[in-house]
Amino acid sequence: MNPPETVANPLETVVNPPETVANPLETVANPLETVVTAPDTLVGHPVIELAGVTKTYPGGVTALRSVDLVVDYGELLAIVGPSGSGKSTMLNLVGTLDRPSQGTVRIDGHDVASLSDRQLSALRARRIGFVFQQFHLAPGRDALGNVADGLLYTGVGKREREQRAEAALVRVGLGERLTHRPYQLSGGERQRVAIARAVAGDPPLLLADEPTGNLDSVSGAGVMDLLRELNEAGTTILVITHDREIADSLPRQVPMRDGQVI
Amino acid sequence: MSLRPARLRLSDLARLGGYGLRSRPLRAVLSALGIAIGIAAMTAVVGISASSRADLDQELAQLGTNMLTVSPGNTMFGKQATLPDESVAMIKRIGPVQSATATGMLSDTYAYRNDRIPAAQSGGLSVLAAKLDLLKTVGGTLDHGAWLNAATDRYPAVVLGATAAERLGNVPAVYIGGRWWVVVGVLQNVLLAPELDSAVLMGWPAATTYLGFDGHPTTVYTRSVESRVEAVRAVLAPTANPSAPGAVQVSKPSDALAARRATNAAFDALLLGLGGVALLVGGIGVANTMVISVLERRSEIGLRRSQGATKGQVRTQFVAESLLLSLLGGAFGALLGYLVTGMYATTQKWPTVVPLWVLAGGVGATVVIGAIAGLYPAIRAARLSPTEALAAT
Ligand SMILES: Nc1ncnc2c1ncn2[C@@H]1O[C@H](COP(=O)(O)OP(=O)(O)O)[C@@H](O)[C@H]1O
Ligand SMILES: [Mg+2]
């Protein structure tokens, strides 16, 4: 199932020239077992670096044009812009779910272009959490199961997945809802489950695409408060929103229009 | 930090396959049903034929496979031929022959239940003169009454074969050749000599005395040392009738018995074929279910990719689901096939035998079917781009 990598570790030889001790985490054997987002050592280092990134979809739509963006560990920022301005496209590139047509994307010290699909999968499993507008919860699994399953690809055993899931649910304020199925939860609670799922593995980078898009304003505000709390605890959080008000409530805004940062 | 994807544990993989099926239980059951029917049909066909064979083996072990019969065949004029009078004595002289005995058919002699039935209505029963050691040699048993003995074989007394007794009814005596013959016993079916079932048997001397029997044997029954049966078979014809060995027929009733049981082979092949078709259709059903499942679960696939599942892990998940689905069908089918075999064997008074290789083969077949049926959908699932999969609703 897991054939040995043909290139033993391309990162060490190609990606990280010795001049940059870009990623202090390289010394940590299993990032999940430590407090990954130790701000003292990481603050000031970039977790996201986009340089001249362009994305043209098959069919000819250019969704991003020569975008440059640097985000440091520990930041909390909003990508804000009208619908169709390329925000989700950017999030997909930052989340390594897609590759740029041009330019370089470096995430957590890794040049995405130099990584295989398997390596990108491993990067996502350990270093990136996602929150989506549509929650994407499994209807047949309770909150605990949904969150624990989010750790399936991190190599952690079932017992520990469940322990971490419970801790994450307590952290988002759903300690009393562990055995509730998604249909038994409100929209705001569902999004909290999704956030718990994204942060259960303690990824240094959390990407949220319109996390309040399907919520009423009260639940939305609750979710934003939760994201702020998680950021205070060290997680770098990038929130995509078309809502100026939400964007303005965050420390940094990156405005976009027509595929460009303005 | 090396970016090596974590291995998915086997227990997690099994659980993953299970979630997929549990989320749509009815669909899972229905699509597993085709495979279940196929495996059940095949298991039952093989099981029933194995049970029948086991029963036959038991029977033959009891009856022995060392009996050979010798009959004269027909003459050129189509008349019932006879064997030379001394043939029984000659056959007894063959080394490995343990016993030899005979019956002699009384031609144009019929048995009636009373003296008022017209002579033409003979009822298809044969009248045979029998040597006293006949019953022992053919391995026959009495239903009731007694076999002929040194006293009764010289008087008008008969023993009825099972079919003959059924036809004549429970009568105290039968009317043969213008005289009443007392029924002293009734036989059970004689498996190795079914021709005795429809016979009315009387003593050799009585037949000679009262019915003008010529004393020529028409069938000789022999038992030989088990290991020498074939050798005996080769010399029986020339021994029985040295002047015309080609006219003599030698047969081995245990072979005939086995052959009669085996005549269902064509029917078995048909059922096996139908089982195979059911299995094929079942496999297509599973593949279809998996294709639909992949289409419906694109956003789940996208989510898993965002959580760090590799293409290989997505592929493995769907293959596991397909395997589980067909194994479910296969296990249920094997159980069903076993039960059908058991029920049928019980009604036939056979032992229930389902060979282990059938069960193993059934499970093996479902594994292959599941893997093949799941592979294409799984590959499609793995090839989905994460962003497109996530965008799907
Ligand atoms: N998979 C795709 N194929 C082709 N065009 C796409 C695809 N995804 C997005 N687009 C186009 O790219 C542009 C930016 O889309 P998107 O990044 O989703 O914007 P936003 O998230 O800001 O609403 C839009 O014009 C959209 O139609
Ligand atoms: Mg969008």
From TrEMBL, chain B:
Q: Where does this one sit in the cell?
A: Cell membrane
Q: Which PANTHER family match?
A: ABC TRANSPORTER PERMEASE YTRF, MEMBRANE COMPONENT OF TRANSPORTER-RELATED
Say if the entry is tagged with keyword Transcription regulation. Answer: no
Listed name of the protein: ABC transporter permease
> What parts of the sequence cross the membrane?
28-50, 270-295, 323-344, 356-376
- Membrane protein topology class: Multi-pass membrane protein
Keyword Cell membrane assigned to the entry: answer is: yes
Q: Where is the ABC3 transporter permease C-terminal domain?
A: 275-386
Q: Which InterPro entries match?
A: ABC3_permease_C (IPR003838), MacB_PCD (IPR025857), Macrolide_Exporter_MacB (IPR050250)
Give the similarity note.
Belongs to the ABC-4 integral membrane protein family.
List the Pfam families hit by this protein, alphabetically.
FtsX (PF02687), MacB_PCD (PF12704)
What is any one of the record's Gene Ontology cellular component terms? plasma membrane
Listed A to Z, the keywords are:
Cell membrane, Membrane, Transmembrane, Transmembrane helix
Domain MacB-like periplasmic core residue range list: 29-226
Query: GO MF terms on file?
Result: transmembrane transporter activity
